[in-house]
Write a structure and sequence with these properties.
By secondary structure, the chain is of the alpha/beta class. Helix content is about 45%, strand content about 15%. The chain contains 9 helices and 8 strands. The protein is globular, with a radius of gyration of 20 Å.
């Protein structure tokens, strides 16, 4: 991995005739997506890992999150503070300050803060195991926090870092592994400085957090290319799942 971005000039007009030349991220080929899936599957997570995961949109971060822990002898239960949790009807999580959680006017930032606090508070391994039954009660517990910056402005992101980092550090000592997935330079710098393992899943990855942070001011991913990347990556994942299912069925019939 090199901290050098590919150079495809893309001038962007600024005020007073100034220009900033950005790198336009290109569409992907199926072969590139196949290689990316192989790369994600090859990454080994160890017990006690504290992972700081970044990457371009539509590079496979969600897939990596979902397959995390597959290499363990006993696959851990993953407590997942997901984006869906923060944007869906949250009335089942109760109220706060007398407000109804599924009110349409509630700010996304409010849902982010409330749900992350709730999940972190409920995610102690002892509590998770106490609420599990059968074999699940004996499994190790992992924690994944997905894009905690969702809906938060700069000041609120700084406040969330101050609140979240020590709590994730505390949980990391008790868990199989702990993972933060983010697009925010604020979160990246803070967690990297705290010694978390930096992992860039971009198609052209950076080896350091500072290199990745600097990259954010040099690249552009337009909506059409983002849709193309997401679509072809989805096709590759779908085709692999279908092939694996067909192989299992054929084996079962033999």
């Amino acid at each position: 991995m090199k901290d050098v971005a590919p150079s495809v000039p893309f001038p962007v007009a600024l005020e007073e005739g100034r220009e900033l030349t950005l790198t336009k991220l290109p569409p992907l080929t199926r072969e590139e997506c196949e290689a990316q899936i192989d790369r994600l599957l090859s990454i080994k997570i160890k017990r006690g890992d504290r992972l700081l995961v970044v990457g371009d949109n539509a590079c496979g971060k969600s897939l990596f999150r979902d397959i995390a822990g597959q290499g363990f002898k006993v696959r851990p239960m993953v407590v997942h503070a997901s984006m869906a949790l923060r944007t869906s009807n949250m009335s089942h999580m109760g109220g706060i300050a007398g407000m109804v959680r599924d009110s349409e006017w509630l700010a996304t930032s409010h849902n982010t803060v409330f749900s992350l606090r709730k999940v972190i508070e409920m995610a102690d391994p002892a509590k998770v195991k106490a609420n599990s039954v059968g074999e699940a009660s004996d499994k190790p517990v992992a924690l994944c926090v997905d894009e905690p910056e969702l809906g938060l402005g700069i000041a609120a992101q700084r406040g969330m870092v101050d609140w979240l980092l020590p709590r994730m550090e505390e949980h990391a000592a008790k868990r199989s592994f702990t993972m933060l997935v983010t697009h925010s330079p604020i979160f990246v710098r803070a967690f990297a400085e705290a010694g978390w393992t930096f992992l860039d899943l971009s198609f052209v990855p950076y080896s350091t957090a500072e290199g990745w942070i600097g990259r954010q001011d040099t690249e552009i991913l337009d909506p059409e290319t983002l849709e193309q990347r997401a679509g072809i990556l989805f096709e590759v994942v779908r085709d692999r799942k279908n092939a694996a299912r067909a192989a299992r069925e054929a084996k079962g019939k033999s």
